[in-house]
Amino acid sequence: MTTATAESVLRVEKGLADPEELAAITAVLLARAAAQPAETPRPHRNTAGWRRLERTPGFRAPHSWQG
What we know:
Elements: H1 6-9, H2 19-35
């Protein structure tokens, strides 16, 4: 496993950042990432996510997005 250097992980687009400033922004980003809730599994659906063609109306407007 290789260790990443500060130059490869963070890049300062404008201005000059001291190592202390890079450490501070890294700490903030890691704290925010840790505070994000884990993805909850989606509930299982009992019905299909699509519609049967025989149950749709026969006419759709020309400007309809369903077309």
